[in-house]
Amino acid sequence: MKDRNKGRGGPKPLPGNESASDKETLKIAAEELALKRQQVEINLLVEDFKARWQELINLQNENNRWTSLYVTALLLVIGWVINNNWQHDGGFADLYARSNNSYLILTIAVVNALYAFSMAYKGYQIQQIALYQHEVLGRRIRDFATEFDRWERYRRMNFVTWHGQDPIRLAYFVLVKSLPLIVSYTIILMYWSYQWTTQALLYHWKSSRNWFSIGAFFLVNCALVFSLRTLKLGKLWIDVLDHQSSDQK
């Protein structure tokens, strides 16, 4: 019986002697497996892209919300200053002469500087996310879909026309984003104009108000420098797009 079973089973085919149909089946299976892996990779990249996009939108919405709150608070402070001067029938010199008022107004300059820091940092985060989307995720996805994520290239090739900047966006940045710094510099310069000499004569270098104004001025300058440095990301975009164009060639 054992000999008969062995005869029925027949000799096994040697490796490399498979029929053409078996080779074709293995080839199709390998291609299907590669296609499935490719689909999984694309799905992961797209999901990461969507997650970063949602994060970017959240940061932009937060920026807009804080800008609205800041403008509202600024109008309230201006109203308080005008009302305070009207009640005491004095000018800015009297406003800064009162110790509590001078510290309060200089604190507003400090808060403005911190707000400018915050807005510049959020803008920096937004640019980082956009660069990651375009340079890392977008490049991988464009290996499968060449026309994916062309917005940044289109916008920068058609609207960035002045030293690596979009003039309209730059004007918005200067007019809106610089408002806290302008207010801070105005407050500090007015204090120096009305009270610096008086405090220096009374307390010499020990004047806490004068030192506080110097600290506020230093903080505002740091906020200005940081805000200007974030503009350099625009030039980084140019390098990224130029490198991408050279790769395509």
Portion in strands? under 5%
Radius of gyration from the CA trace?
33 Å
Largest sheet: none
Distance between the termini: 72 Å
Give a written overview of the molecule.
By secondary structure, this protein is mostly helical. It has one domain (53-248). It has helices at residues 2-9, 20-88, 92-97, 99-142, 151-159, 167-177, 179-203, 208-230, 233-248. It is elongated. The mean pLDDT is 80.
Summarize the structure.
The chain is mostly helical and 249 residues long. The chain has helices spanning 2-9, 20-88, 92-97, 99-142, 151-159, 167-177, 179-203, 208-230, 233-248.
Attribute tags:
single chain, 249 residues, mainly alpha, 9 helices, 85% helix, elongated
Layout of secondary structure:
Blueprint: H1 2-9, H2 20-88, H3 92-97, H4 99-142, H5 151-159, H6 167-177, H7 179-203, H8 208-230, H9 233-248
Helix pairs in contact: 2-4, 4-7, 4-8, 7-8
